[in-house]
Amino acid sequence: MHCHLIPDFYRTSLAAHGITEIAGVPVPAWSPALAVDFMNRYSIETLVVSVSEPGVTYLGSPADRLDMARRLNTYMSRDLVDGSAQRKGRFGGFAVLPLGRTVTAKDVSAAAAEAKRSVRELRLDGVGLFSSYGGTIWAIPSRRQQPALPQPLLRQGLYGERCNSRAGSDS
Known about the structure:
five-stranded parallel sheet; globular; single chain; alpha/beta; disordered C terminus; two-stranded antiparallel sheet
């Protein structure tokens, strides 16, 4: 089973940038305890988590995107995948990559390095990819046969500016 995680530090960062909704829905409460409660209630043995849109695309600088991606990936690894005894084996994770609305060769190199760190050092299960970054649709082959989770974006350009309309509308 797959779901999105929204740790408190990420929710705080989103709110500081004016993002209080994702695809027209208020950013929901999330915690490892809520996730485990949900899993237990519905007899789900394992959840593989990833970061939903906007990922780190809302952050303006490559350094800020890399810092947040690293923080999220480390959190997934240390607090969920390798977390407490009660959570051991209950979570897997797909890394978020530090890509923004515009992507340079340097950004791709940073993303590749973070993917490598996330899989090799943090032992995450693979990487989560949005269907596009900055209007460019991506196809990133995995030479290491590492799983990738492609996630469609509901509306290009939604983040960075506050958007009050529903995804898919023309307003």
